[in-house]
Amino acid sequence: MSGTKPDILWAPHQVDRFVVCDSELSLYHVESTVNSELKAGSLRLSEDSAATLLSINSDTPYMKCVAWYLNYDPECLLAVGQANGRVVLTSLGQDHNSKFKDLIGKEFVPKHARQCNTLAWNPLDSNWLAAGLDKHRADFSVLIWDICSKYTPDIVPMEKVKLSAGETETTLLVTKPLYELGQNDACLSLCWLPRDQKLLLAGMHRNLAIFDLRNTSQKMFVNTKAVQGVTVDPYFHDRVASFYEGQVAIWDLRKFEKPVLTLTEQPKPLTKVAWCPTRTGLLATLTRDSNIIRLYDMQHTPTPIGDETEPTIIERSVQPCDNYIASFAWHPTSQNRMIVVTPNRTMSDFTVFERISLAWSPITSLMWACGRHLYECTEEENDNSLEKDIATKMRLRALSRYGLDTEQVWRNHILAGNEDPQLKSLWYTLHFMKQYTEDMDQKSPGNKGSLVYAGIKSIVKSSLGMVESSRHNWSGLDKQSDTQNLNEERILALQLCGWIKKGTDVDVGPFLNSLVQEGEWERAAAVALFNLDIRRAIQILNEGASSEKGDLNLNVVAMALSGYTDEKNSLWREMCSTLRLQLNNPYLCVMFAFLTSETGSYDGVLYENKVAVRDRVAFACKFLSDTQLNRYIEKLTNEMKEAGNLEGILLTGLTKDGVDLMESYVDRTGDVQTASYCMLQGSPLDVLKDERVQYWIENYRNLLDAWRFWHKRAEFDIHRSKLDPSSKPLAQVFVSCNFCGKSISYSCSTVPHQGRGFSQYGVSGSPTKSKVTSCPGCRKPLPRCALCLINMGTPVSSCPGGTKSDEKVDLSKDKKLAQFNNWFTWCHNCRHGGHAGHMLSWFR
C-alpha cells in the first residue's frame, strides 16, 4: 500500500491464489513443485511450492485497506479503501459474467473525505460492505454500503458524473450508505459477528462497540484501549481478539464487561492478529520489525461453577523466514498453513506443525495425534518373532483367571500359557509346599508346616550334623556308591523337588513314569541314573528312541551307557569325559559327568545351569554331605536371587530371601502379577507386610482397574482376603440409626473376629433366632415393617400372613449370614419400608 508495508490476502474460495497489496494489487497462483522443476518467472515459496504472477492492478492508488469479496461469484472482486475515504470495487483479471460486470469500478463516497481504515464484507449477506473511517465532527465513521444498490434506486440515489481528465469512461458513484453509525468518533477496525447478519463489532477510538442494525440508536460498548485488529474466532463466535500496542485482549461477548484473558505484552507494537481458520483456538500475532510469529493455543479445561480461572494458554513461536515480516495470512483450508511477505515483497509458504502428542493405552495400543489426524501403531499379525510385552501377557493371563486356582495350584502355569519353564517350576513348587504343609498339619498341628514355606535352604540348615554317608548298591551293576542316608528333612526336600511322593516310601518310580508320559526321556533317564538304577535308565532311553517323537540317537547313548566301567583308567571313561560336552541335551551330558566323576566331586552335575534347579538340588540332597550341601545351597540361592530366577523359590521359600529374589524378577520382567499371587500363596504375615510386596499388589490392582477389569480386580481382592485376612476391608455400607446415627451392627464391625456378629440382631443362622428391636447405641426402637408391623431386626418368614410354623423354619441348614429376607429395605423418598422378603412378595 502507498507508503506502507505490503499486506497479503488468500482468496476465500480459490485455495491456490493470493494477492499482495502495497502500491498495486498483484495476483499470484501457487502450484506444487514436488515432482516438477521450477518454471521460468516463478517465485520459490518453499521446498515444494512456487508462485506465478497472474495479473497486476494499479488502477487504485492511495490504498489503505483491501477486502476480498466472500462469495464465489464473482471470483476476483476486491474492495479497496483509499486515503480519501472512498471505497472502490476492482477486479484482478477478466470477469466475463455480465451480471456483475457493472460492479467493477463502482465507488462509494462518504460525505466528508478522510482516511478509510478498515473494510469488512458481511459473511451472511455478501452484498453488504462495512467501512471504518477516521473521525469527523459532522459525519459518521462507520458506513455500511450495499454494492448492488443500483437495483433499488429509490433507497440509494445515484448520479452519473464525468471522471477526471484523462479518463474516458464513466462510473457510478454511490453517496448514501444503507446505515451510518458511530457519529463524531473514529473507527479503527471492524468485523461482522457470524451469529447474526445485523450485528457489527467495531473498534472505535476509545471503546469496543457492538452495533445492532435493527436498532441503530442503541449500542453495547466497553471502554478499552484495545480497539485495533478486532477479529472473531471462526470456531467460537463469542470469542473476539483485539490489540493495543504490544498487548492482546481476548473478549467473550457473553460477558463483555472486561477481557477474559490478556496475553503477555510484547516489547514492540503489534501489527496484526489473526485466528487460524483450520484450527480451534489458535491465534497468531505479529510485532513490528520482527521475523517471529507468536502462536497462542487456547485450551479449554472444565472448571468448577463460579470459578473465573483463565483458560490454559500454550504459547510458542515460529520463524517462517530470516527477514523481517511485513504481514501474514492463514490459508483458508490447508491446515495450519500460512504465507508471509517481507517489506521487499519476498514471500514464503510456511506450515505450522503441531506438537505430536503420544498416548499409550493400558491395552498397549500406541496412538499419536498430529493436527487433525489420529494415528494408531499396530503390530503385524504374522510377525511372531517379537516377544509379547509383559503387560500384554499379564492382561491375557488375567482373562484366563491365572493365579486364582488355589486347589490345584500347579495348574496356574497352564493358565499362564505353559510357555515359561520358570513359571512352571514356581507353581509346581508352590503346589508341593501347599500339599506337604497340609499333610504335616494333619499329622502334627503346628509342628513343621511353616518350615515347608521357608524353602529348602531353611530345611537343610535344620538338619546339619544329622546325616551320615553310606554305600548303596547299583541296580543292574555289581557295584556300590557312596550316598547320604535320607533323614526326614532330606526326604522333605526331595518331596519339594518332586522326585518322590508324600509318604515314607522313597521311590522315584511314579516321578519317572510321569516324565516318560510327558516325553522327557533324557531327564527321566538322568533321574533314574542318579538313583543308581542304570538298567532303568537304559530302558527309558530305548523307549525314547523307539517312540514317534523320540530321537534315534538315544539308542547310541544307551549303548554307550551300557558299557560303563568303574576302572579309572579305562578307555570308556576317557572317551566319555572328552565327548560328553558335545552332547546337545544337558541331561545326557550330566549323566556321563556323574559316571566319570570322582567320589564326592560332582561339579559337572551341580553347576550345569541348563539342568533344572530342582533336579540339581535333589541330586545334592542324595550325594553331598551336610557341609557340602549347606555350602552348595547357599551359593545357589545367591545366584538365583541375583538372576531373579523363579526356580530359586524352591530354595528361598516365601521368606525375606524370597522377596529379594522376587524383587530381582520384577525388576527384570515387570511381572507384578506373578509376584502378587506368589507372595499371597503362603507367606507369613511379616513378609506380606513388606513394602515391596504391598507395592506389587497395589500396582497389580491398579493395572486391573486401568484395563477396566472390575470383576477380575474384585476376584483378586476376594482371593487376597482369603489368603491374607488382615487385608480384608472394613464394612463401608451399613444401616444407621435415625436418632444417633450409629450403625445398628457396630459391634460386629468393630470386633469382627470375637464371635459377635449379626446373630444378636436376629439375622444369623441360629435356630434360637435371638432378636433385637432397638438401636444398640441409643436404645431407641427400630422402625417397624410396613407390612407385618414387627420391629426391624426380628427374623420373620418370607411372606406376610404366614403361620407360626412357617416362622419357625430352621435357618441353620445351608443358610448364610444375614438372610436376604430379613434385610432392611426402605424407599428413598418416603423412608417407609420393611423386611426385604415382605417387600418382594408385596410387589409381585
Report what the structure shows:
The protein is α+β, with helices and mostly antiparallel strands and 844 residues long. Among the domains are: 488-625, no CATH class; 733-746 and 771-794 and 818-843, no CATH class. The chain is 28% helix and 24% strand. The strands form ten sheets. The chain has a six-stranded mixed β-sheet, with no helix packed on it. It has a five-stranded antiparallel β-sheet with strand order 1-2-3-5-4, with no helix packed on it. 35% of the residues are buried. Mean pLDDT is 81; it is low at 151-170, 302-306, 747-770 and 798-818. Keywords: Lysosome, Membrane, Metal-binding, Repeat, WD repeat, Zinc, Zinc-finger. Belongs to the WD repeat mio family. It is found in: Lysosome membrane.
Can you lay out the helices and strands and say which pair or pack?
Blueprint: E1 7-10, E2 17-21, E3 25-32, E4 43-46, E5 49-57, E6 63-68, E7 77-82, E8 87-91, H1 98-101, E9 107-108, E10 116-121, E11 128-133, E12 140-146, E13 158-162, E14 170-174, E15 179-183, E16 187-192, E17 199-204, E18 207-212, E19 219-223, E20 228-233, E21 236-244, E22 247-252, E23 261-262, E24 270-275, E25 282-287, E26 293-299, E27 312-318, E28 327-330, E29 337-341, E30 347-351, E31 357-360, E32 366-370, E33 373-377, H2 390-399, H3 412-415, H4 421-443, H5 449-452, H6 456-461, E34 469-473, E35 480-484, H7 488-497, H8 509-517, H9 521-530, H10 534-546, H11 553-562, H12 571-579, H13 586-595, H14 603-606, H15 613-623, H16 626-643, H17 649-652, H18 656-669, H19 672-682, H20 685-688, H21 691-706, H22 710-723, H23 746-750, H24 804-807, E36 824-826, E37 833-835, H25 836-842
Helix pairs in contact: 4-7, 4-19, 7-15, 8-9, 9-10, 9-13, 10-11, 16-18, 19-21
